Amino acid sequence: MRKVLVTGFEPFGGDRVNPSWEVVKKLQDVQLSGVSLAVRQLPCVFGKAIEALNQAIDETDPLMVICVGQAGGRVDFSIERVAINVDDVRIPDNDGQQPIDAPIVKDGPAAYFTQLPLKALVNGLREAGIPASVSQTAGTYVCNHVMYGLLHRMTQSDCRVKKGGFIHVPYLPEQAALHTGTASMSAQTLLEALELTIAIALHTEQDLIIAEGATH
Question: In the chain, what are the domains?
Answer without folding.
Answer: 3-203 (3.40.630.20)
